[in-house]
Amino acid sequence: MKKLVNTLYITSPKAYISLDGETVVIKKDDKKSMRLPLHNLEAIVCFSYPGVSPALMGACAERNIGLTFLKPSGKFLARVSGRVKGNLLLRKRQYQLAEQEDDRVQIAKSCLLGKISNTRTVINRAIRDHALLVDVPKLQNVSGFLKGTLQEVAAADKLDTLRGLEGNAAKQYFGIFGGLILHQKADFHFTERNRRPPRDNVNALLSFLYTLLTYEVASALETVGLDPQVGFLHADRPGRPSLALDMMEELRPVLADRLTLSLINRKQVKGSDFVKKESGGILMTDDARKAVLTAWQERKQQEITHPFLKERVSLGLLPHVQALLLARYIRGDLDAYPPFFWR
Questions:
Q1: pLDDT, tens digit, 9 for 90 and up, residues 253-296
Q2: Sequence-ordered list of residues with C-beta below 8 angstroms from that of 9, at least 6 positions apart, any chain
Q3: pTM listed for this prediction
Q4: What is the architecture, at CATH level 2, of domain 6-80?
Q5: CATH architecture of the region 88-331
């Protein structure tokens, strides 16, 4: 099993990162502020603008350390990767399956079964843990709708049908998501999912976490030898990591949605942590971003029993585990891709 090591997040807008031997050096205002051994890192995510030295870029590419550049809002800018690695036959098989509607449907169906089931778990946990604070009948109604949708997804045989079912399920889920916010409701009012740019504090938080998750999944797929650009549920589009978006669907409720609710309900973020731009978009402050990243790392350290492997794994390893399982299915070692079902 892959070891969960560290992700280095650079949030200071004035930071420059370089390499000194086998050590990452972080400089701010021309002064060294931190040194970290390169071998302790799994990924580096930069929200800063001064940049990264070519030597460090090369070292990250050679060692398969993910190096991603994001805007302060969390919007993706670029990702550094080295030579294509992995099993050529595995990728060729992936491309073959991506050209066949029936094969695409089977994988897309698994991803959606995991996603919808996990959104139900988010709702059902709120009913179980906070029955006196939430609208139980309303949540039960949506949970029942999603349960019925799972049956429809299992019976579907067309991609367009699956996409329609996913859209309806997401509309129902996000329609009650605001009801899962128990505190700070005035500052974290939520009515619908919106993005590009997010127009309220909750959507800004969701988009930020979804971006982090997307590129962790993309890194995991590359690590096992799959092409994150060629997906099965999401259509191919230049520059879009379609397969990473496919796989993250089942992980979003577990890693991002639940964390968003916890950050708000535990008052780890506040309304003052968000700034509205002239365009109407919402940005987090630097301090808020650091608090969210700290909570993100802590969330990834939590352990669960994987329902398929029957082994204890940390939540942060779920992208890697699911990528391995998908690769095994594409190779023909499994009869179907087993999605992650959160209990």
A1: 999 999 999 999 999 999 999 998 877 788 888 889 889 999 99
A2: 45, 47, 290, 293
A3: 0.82
A4: Ribosomal Protein L15; Chain: K; domain 2 (3.100)
A5: Up-down Bundle (1.20)
